[in-house]
């Protein structure tokens, strides 16, 4: 499809270099992108190569590509970054203190940008990738994320129209934004597969300062092949869920699931097709569509899939683009404040399945930092789901570094999710159902059911030493932190 059929009306078409004139040296860039797809490519690259002395604050919805989180960092153009990142260049800059980083929950990010003072809206420029644009509307590309809120909050708008993304992506979008508090009405959605909005993001035409024509593919996740541990974790999770759906009236009619982004989450999605859930419908309500969900749709195992991003591999994108009409019947993309809405997670009774760096013996979860201080990503939407799901699961291998490091530890040096929000831990060793347990009971379950045998003896000894000191949550702080060393 030609760009002429994607650009409608009298809009200011220009090149990326000229478009950067609308971006001040100290501006805030509100960029589209989530799950490493749907992010602008030409304008960030042009800013990085401009030679200007830039001190930009960059706010995305989720992870983006190298054009933003590598090029802008290496050109020393990025001063601040919110709320998620997944590229080594920006991680190194954050850990060295060269880029200031703030981690935020996805569900409230749109509100924080518009109403909470996270950014200075007077010098905010939204740079959004689209598959089509008009004088007062745009159609997002492979993700929606926080795009509607950014477009509304920004003083100026630059739209990149990407010819490498098919116009047929419009059929996936369901754009709806909650109203402004305190008069915000309930979200009128009663089923995860229901559509309640339109396919376009509308805006004040006075905001549109540049439309840039591009033709470049996303650089999305490349999922590794499932390991033996991944497959065993998936088997353990499936066995647990099979028993749970028979036990709990929450799953009489259907099972609603969310999985975190990444290779393990993708493997868990794909493996669930072999679980026996009787005649119950399997429904996905989460942040990202990954390749494993396409497999379930192709096999007829999934009734519908609702998310905010097509976080597919290159092969997965090709597969979806070639069969867009068919997949659009079952896949819906929504803004992040719907895909991650605490209200909807609770309303639909979503089972949350996320991974982690480590879990401590009392059920505290570290999802973001190695050694308690070295950031590797961000909390993303895991907090939205873990805190609000009626059943919250963390799935992870029991060890790291080839078996040299236990991921079940005495005390997490950084906590993203507390023991109050976690119900179940699954590793390749087994399942620990922590519901209805005291801290001491929880600790024994995690050690005996989820820790690797090579570390169980030391963890048992730790719990014995800590118990001698007493307390509701017994700890021996000196030896607890020696594990991190």
From TrEMBL:
Residues 175-199 are annotated as: Disordered. The keyword Ligase does not apply. SUPFAM superfamilies: NagB/RpiA/CoA transferase-like (SSF100950). InterPro entries: AcetylCoA_hyd_C, AcetylCoA_hyd_C_sf, ActCoA_hydro, ActCoA_hydro_N, NagB/RpiA_transferase-like. Keywords: Hydrolase. Residues 15-213 form the Acetyl-CoA hydrolase/transferase N-terminal domain. One of its GO terms (molecular function) is hydrolase activity. Belongs to the acetyl-CoA hydrolase/transferase family. This is Acetyl-CoA hydrolase/transferase C-terminal domain-containing protein. Residues 316-462 form the Acetyl-CoA hydrolase/transferase C-terminal domain.
């Amino acid at each position: 499809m030609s760009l002429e059929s994607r650009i409608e009306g009298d809009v200011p078409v220009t090149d990326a270099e000229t478009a950067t004139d609308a971006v001040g040296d100290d501006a805030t860039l509100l960029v589209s992108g989530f799950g490493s797809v749907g992010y602008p490519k030409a304008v960030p690259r042009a800013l990085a190569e401009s030679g200007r002395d830039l001190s930009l604050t960059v706010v995305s919805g989720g992870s983006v590509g190298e054009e933003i989180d590598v090029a802008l960092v290496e050109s020393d153009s990025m001063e601040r970054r919110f709320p998620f990142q997944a590229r080594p260049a920006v991680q190194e800059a954050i850990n060295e203190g060269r880029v200031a980083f703030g981690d935020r929950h996805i569900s409230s990010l749109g509100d924080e940008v518009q109403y909470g003072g996270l950014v200075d809206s007077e010098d905010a420029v939204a740079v959004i990738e689209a598959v089509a644009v008009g004088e007062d509307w745009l159609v997002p590309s492979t993700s929606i994320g926080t795009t509607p809120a950014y477009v509304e909050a920004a003083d100026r708008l630059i739209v990149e129209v990407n010819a490498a993304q098919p116009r047929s992506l419009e059929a996936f979008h369901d754009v709806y934004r909650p109203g402004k508090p305190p008069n915000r009405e309930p979200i009128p959605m009663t089923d995860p597969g229901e559509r309640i909005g339109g396919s376009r993001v509308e805006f004040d035409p006075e905001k549109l300062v540049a439309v840039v024509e591009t033709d470049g593919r996303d650089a999305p996740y490349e999922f590794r092949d499932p390991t033996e541990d991944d497959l065993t974790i998936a088997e353990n999770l499936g066995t647990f869920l099979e028993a749970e759906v028979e036990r709990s009236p929450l799953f009489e009619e259907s099972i609603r699931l969310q999985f975190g982004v990444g290779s393990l989450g993708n493997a868990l999605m794909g493996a669930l097709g072999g679980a026996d859930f009787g005649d119950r419908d399997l429904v996905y309500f989460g942040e990202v569509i990954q390749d494993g969900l396409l497999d379930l749709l192709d096999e007829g195992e999934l009734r519908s899939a609702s998310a905010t991003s097509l976080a597919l591999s290159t092969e997965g994108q090709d597969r979806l683009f070639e069969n867009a009409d068919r997949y659009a019947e079952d896949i819906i993309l929504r803004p992040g404040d719907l895909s991650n809405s605490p209200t909807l997670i609770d309303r639909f009774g979503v089972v949350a399945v996320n991974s982690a760096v480590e879990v401590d013996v009392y059920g505290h979860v570290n999802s973001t930092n190695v050694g308690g201080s070295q950031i590797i990503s961000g909390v993303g939407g895991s907090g939205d789901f873990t805190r609000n799901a009626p059943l919250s699961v963390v799935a992870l291998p029991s060890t790291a570094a080839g078996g040299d490091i236990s991921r079940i530890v005495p005390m997490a040096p950084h906590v993203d999710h507390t023991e109050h929000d976690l119900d179940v831990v699954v590793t390749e060793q087994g399942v620990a159902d922590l519901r209805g347990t005291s801290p001491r009971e929880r600790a024994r379950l995690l050690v005996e059911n989820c820790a690797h045998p090579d570390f169980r003896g030391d963890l048992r000894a730790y719990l014995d030493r800590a118990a001698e000191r007493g307390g509701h949550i017994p700890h021996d702080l000196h030896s607890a932190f020696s594990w991190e060393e």
